[in-house]
Amino acid sequence: MRLIHKFAQWCDLRLQVGNSIRRTAEHSVPRDTASWFYVFGSAALTVFALQLVTGILLALIYVPSAGEAWSSLQTLNHGVALGWFIRALHGWGSNFMVAIVLLHMLQVFLFGAYKFPRELTWIVGVLLLVVTLAMAFTGQIMRFDQDAYWGLGIGASIASRVPIIGPAVVNLMLGGPIIAGATLSRFFALHVFVVPGLLIAFVGIHLLMVLRLGINEWPMPGRVVRRATYLQEYQDLTHERGIPFVPSAVWKDIFFSGFILVLVTLCAAYFGPFGPGGKPDPTIIQTAPRPDFFFLWLYALLSFLPPSAETPILLAGPVIALTCLLALPLVAGEGEKSWKRRPVAVLTILLIAVALGTLTHLAEHTPWSPVMDAWSAEPVPSHFLRGRSALERQGALVFQAKQCHNCHSLEGRGGKRGPALDAVALSLSEDQLVRQVIQGGGNMPAYGKNLSPAETTALVAFLKTLHPATQLPAHDASRVLALGADETGTR
Amino acid sequence: MNVKDGISRRAALVKLGLVLNGIVGAFLAVPIVRYLLSPVTRERKVGYESWLSLGELKQFPAGQTRLATYRNPVVNAWDGDTGDIACWVRNVDDKNFQVFAVNCAHLGCLVRWFPQSSLFMCPCHGGAYYQDGSRASGPPERGLFEYHYKIENGHLLIKAGEMPTPGRAANRRSRAGTCA
Questions:
Q1: What are the structural domain ranges in chain A?
Q2: pLDDT for position A328
Q3: Which of A458, B6, B54, B100 sits CB 3.0–4.6 Å from B144 for a disulfide?
Q4: Which candidate from B80, B82, B136 shows the least CB-CB separation from A445?
Q5: CB-based contact (8 Å) between A174 and chain B?
Q6: Are A412 and A369 in contact (CB under 8 A)?
Q7: B120 and B67 within one domain
């Protein structure tokens, strides 16, 4: 022990950093900030350190080449001792890092920590969020499978919509005319050199400002921030009634960081690594690409926007959102910090949370996508066929063979793109059914050219049976008058 | 020479040094920017597209739509499977053909052909197209992307080499109708 102490003293005499480290560690912080709400920033930093270590470990094996990346991931998963665990740590670490960064941002926003004099700390924090999301997106591409390949295709399609320079941006993004080796190489360079470099630089500035300006005090309702008086008030809070950061506040940071590391490890060990999914071979057409969890909300949004609004929202949306975040501390640099006196702030958070949550939930069920194999994998439930005529059963066959089931569900099975047809006969009469099938409309393709008259007749006969036993199907009362009761064909 | 002059002379030298470095930096920036922009300039100068064969015509029976694959004309040795590109070939009547990109005109996912209902369906956001590539339903703003084709010596040739995207659509022939 004494030897170590002597060695440390020998080093510090030459390094001359011991005193400043001690002073930094023991700097005073407001008493209330030794709180479990103030642990997210340090936890994000801890997970980032984990990402750095596991990322370097993965780079020992991973081959950033379009032809080899997928098989090198297989080797990592199956051929290298505990390679799967390192991949799982890195994958789960990235999920936790995005989540903790968002939590940190939420806490900072609700506690008014972005107000004077910490405006720039917030702005750098917003840049850190952007850079973290960039790490998540480029990392998804490193897992070079079908989802990565088609995700890049979606990114390129969005980028191509930029006016005038769109096609050039696509070539620049892909590094060539198609998604191929050059694409993976440049996203590898972004993921391991450029973006982490920015991340480290921004973290450095962010931390430096937290130390120089002091941690945000616990917001009290009624304690209003004013540029003229705030610095003096904060001085009183820290120096008159403050406590040293080490050890009075730091132990909560340490415990929480350790807790998060344990959670990441447990998730990695229990759930294992993410993918890789199918081979990134664009000639394999039996694939339905899905984005990673944090981009699911965007996936949902893109299927609900009307075509005319899509391009403007795709291109202007991120710019507007980023501008709002960056401008927030400049616009609202003074005033109440406590969330109890900031109803608009709280409601904004709730609105965003509900919107993102709903979109993510929808994206997990993708009601807008046809179920590509429902026509062959989901049979018509047998009770819809029992006691039916030959024609009606023939109609059920048409329903399957013409892929109607891909977009229309029966008993909740099949596609949800179009309306469920369990009780369609209640809302559409025979003529309306014929018209809808032949002409389409309301976002349904017209099947007039693809169905023979016999097939249409059979299909409509089947659809007419789809109603609850206790309710009569819709019928056109005027037909009885025009054609006479015998020829209407209603049952 | 007094001290004051000395300081200003040194300050001037510092400024001169900075200016020199700035000039060198500007010179260095030219090759760096040209290197970075090479994927864009290459398209302007040489172009990525060329005529390539999808195989003999007899692979594509009249009245049917079949999947065809080709090796992209611009590839690197390490591109692996990503250099293989698929497309849908529709033989209308043995004289007229249509060759569609597999990429959906909405956001580029790959569309699948269903011969039973004569529809292309996209698994991502639910775009659907008729057999002639025109938009049937869903979010796409236009029909499927089409390649130029020609027939030589009993082979079907298409002009391809670049991933079709909505933004490049203006440069590309589009027979397909837009939304109703």
A1: 34-224+248-365, 374-487
A2: 95
A3: B100
A4: B136
A5: yes
A6: no
A7: yes
Question: Structurally, how many domains does chain B consist of?
Answer: 2
A400 touches chain B (CB under 8 A): no
Give the CATH fold of the A34-224+248-365 domain.
Answer: Cytochrome Bc1 Complex; Chain C (1.20.810)
Structural domain span for residue B131: 48-171
Query: What is the mean pLDDT of the segment spanning A340-361?
Result: 94
Give the pair of three-digit tokens for residue A127. Answer: 């840049």
The CATH number of residue B120's host domain is 2.102.10.10
- Give A443's pLDDT tier (boundaries 50, 70, 90): confident
Lowest mean pLDDT, pick from A330-339, A458-467, B160-169: B160-169
pLDDT at B173 over 90: no
Residues with Cβ within 8 Å of residue A452, at least 6 apart in sequence: none
Question: Does any domain span residue B81?
Answer: yes
Closest chain B residue to the Cα of A166, Cα to Cα: B167
- How far apart, in whole angstroms, are the C-alpha atoms of residue A399 and residue A393? 10
If phi > 0 it is left, if psi is from -120 to 50 it is alpha, else beta; for residue A218 that is beta
Q: Which residues contact A202 (CB under 8 A, 6 or more apart)?
A: A124, A127, A128, A131
pLDDT at A53 over 60: yes
Which residues in chain A (306-325) have CB-CB distances under 8 A to chain B? Answer: 307-308, 310
Same domain, B22 and B65: no
For the segment A133-162, what is each residue's pLDDT rounded down to a tens digit? Answer: 999 999 999 999 999 999 999 999 999 988
Q: Decide if B42 is inside a domain.
A: no
* DSSP H or E stretch at residue B91: strand B84-91
CB-based contact B123 A182, cutoff 8 Å: no
**Pairwise CA distance, residues A363 & A358, whole Å:** 9
pLDDT of residue B43: 74
Does residue B178 fall inside a structural domain? Answer: no
Residue B121, in any domain of the structure: yes
Which residue among B42, B77, B109 sits closest to A150, beta carbon to beta carbon?
Answer: B109
**Tell me, what's the pLDDT at B5?**
57
CA-CA distance, B106 to B22, in Å (whole number)?
A: 45
Contact call for A302 and B107, based on CB within 8 A: yes
Least confident of A176-190, B4-18, B69-83, B102-116: B4-18
Same structural domain for residues B28 and B54?
Answer: no
ipTM for the complex? 0.88
Domain A374-487 has CATH 1.10.760.10: yes
